[in-house]
Design a protein that fits this description.
By secondary structure, the chain is of the alpha+beta class. The chain is built from 19 helices and 13 strands. The protein folds into two domains: 177 residues, 3-Layer(aba) Sandwich (D-Maltodextrin-Binding Protein, domain 2), CATH 3.40.190; 201 residues, D-Maltodextrin-Binding Protein, domain 2, CATH 3.40.190.10. Strand 1, helix 1 and strand 2 form a beta-alpha-beta unit. The longest helix is centred in the C-terminal third of the chain and has 16 residues. It is globular and about 65 Å long.
Length: 420
């Protein structure tokens, strides 16, 4: 695995390289030219971040005779099914995938160079440098990011209104607030740790504080996560349980349920990122975010976290590559990404699309702060194998539930993955 050379530049200013039943229907295009059947797989859910995809696909088909788009949005076990498909001769032609998968597929020669799309779509001068860097491997652009993410500490004002307390700034503030919140029979923080993926995503807010992306990548390459910073990061989960900030019951709650509880005020806070804006404000338009994340320790490696969103990629040498490239050019144009931003609450990778973000909302809040994200705060799970991120999710579940100590969870859950 190649380690990106990280500097102290901010997310928007990055200029150096960072560098199977569902298989039926793939690779079915047998037409030449810009027509045929394009199989479009994305990890976005149809009811959430992919909510606009169906309508956009129909619009494109109506305007482009001879093109059919088969959407496959967030199938069960998406990562496993996708990787199985990509290693076969029956690959989807148009992909919406993570950075890690993009880099892996590019290294295997499975992706096409999409650099010309920037000019064809008229976005070369519009797209943020960070989005270009996120999609570049060894000088070649293999993916175009739809969005940039900013770490946010969400809260429900209803949960604070009758407590008479200010938003916490330090860990001591957080622990004091948690006591008062619990006295009102509310949960201070709920992540929804029942799902491994949600548990792994929660770690995005802890890795920048205790570890930093550089050390995370080094440990992954060395297959050794036993160092003290990793223990400290997991220990913070347990400390938060002992101080009444987290609850062991969180490990039995689904993310959708805890988001609903945040909307009602039954739960009060959620450290996460801007990719959840759309789903949260749909539940409660009054959901807000602290101006600054709570500082869990005095000297964090990085204060802010974030990263690039879904990467749009094309499979190399497909029978409908020309048609897929034409679709990609249309799909990432300002007009179409603006539609996605307006409907999803995401912060676009295009400056012009972000001009359509409603004033005063959470998306505007995130867009204005993207330049605060240091490379050490980039999402760790975009840079390590998915299996390792999932192992961290399971370890977090074990520590929060009290089933294992942080050291035991690292040794028997995270490190165990290297022995299989």
């Amino acid at each position: 695995m190649t380690n990106p050379q990280l500097s102290r530049r901010t997310l928007l200013g990055l200029a150096g390289g960072m560098a199977a039943t569902l298989l039926s229907g793939c690779g079915s295009g047998d037409s030449d030219g810009a027509t045929g059947v394009i199989n479009f797989w994305s990890y976005y859910e149809a009811a959430e971040r992919g909510a606009t995809f169906g309508d956009l696909a129909k619009r494109y088909e109506a305007a482009n005779a001879g093109v059919t788009i088969n959407l496959n949005l967030a199938p069960q076990n998406f990562n496993t099914v996708l990787r199985t498909a990509m290693m076969s001769d029956d690959r989807p032609e148009f992909l919406g995938i993570t950075q890690y998968n993009m880099r892996d597929f590019a290294a295997a020669g499975l992706l096409a160079d999409v650099g010309t799309v920037l000019d064809d779509a008229g976005i070369r001068d519009d797209i943020f440098p960070a989005a270009i860097e996120a999609g570049t491997v060894d000088g070649t652009l293999y993916g175009i990011s739809d969005a940039l993410r900013f770490g946010m500490w969400f809260y429900n004002p209803k949960g604070f209104d009758d407590l008479g307390i200010e938003p916490p700034k330090t860990y001591d503030d957080l622990a004091e607030a948690a006591g008062r919140i619990r006295a009102k029979k509310r949960y201070p923080i709920l992540f929804g740790l029942k799902e491994v993926n949600t548990a792994a995503n929660s770690f995005q807010a802890f890795v920048p504080t205790f570890i930093g992306l550089t050390e995370m990548i080094k440990a992954s390459a060395a297959r050794d996560y036993t160092g003290q910073p990793f223990v400290d990061a997991l220990t913070m989960y347990r400390t938060m349980v002992e101080d009444g900030i987290l609850d062991p019951a969180d490990t039995g709650m689904a993310a959708a349920d805890t988001q609903a509880m945040l909307a009602t005020g039954e739960a009060v806070m959620l450290p996460s990122a801007s990719y959840q804006i759309g789903s949260l404000i749909k539940l409660d338009p009054e959901i807000s975010a602290f101006d600054e994340p709570v500082k869990l320790i005095d000297d964090p490696v990085a204060t802010y976290w974030g990263g690039a969103g879904q990467m749009y990629c094309l499979t190399a040498d497909s029978a409908v590559e020309e048609a897929a490239r034409k679709l990609l050019t249309w799909w990432v144009s300002p007009e179409q990404l603006t539609v996605q931003v307006e409907k999803s609450g995401l912060v676009s990778s295009l400056r012009s699309a972000n001009e359509k973000i409603p004033a005063g909302g959470l998306a505007e809040f995130a867009a204005a702060r993207l330049d605060q994200v240091d490379p050490e705060g980039l999402f760790y799970n975009n840079y390590i194998p998915p299996g390792e991120a999932e192992a961290w999710g399971r370890a977090i579940q074990e520590v929060v539930s009290g089933a294992k100590t942080p050291e035991q969870a690292i040794e028997t859950t995270v490190q165990a993955g290297f022995k299989g």
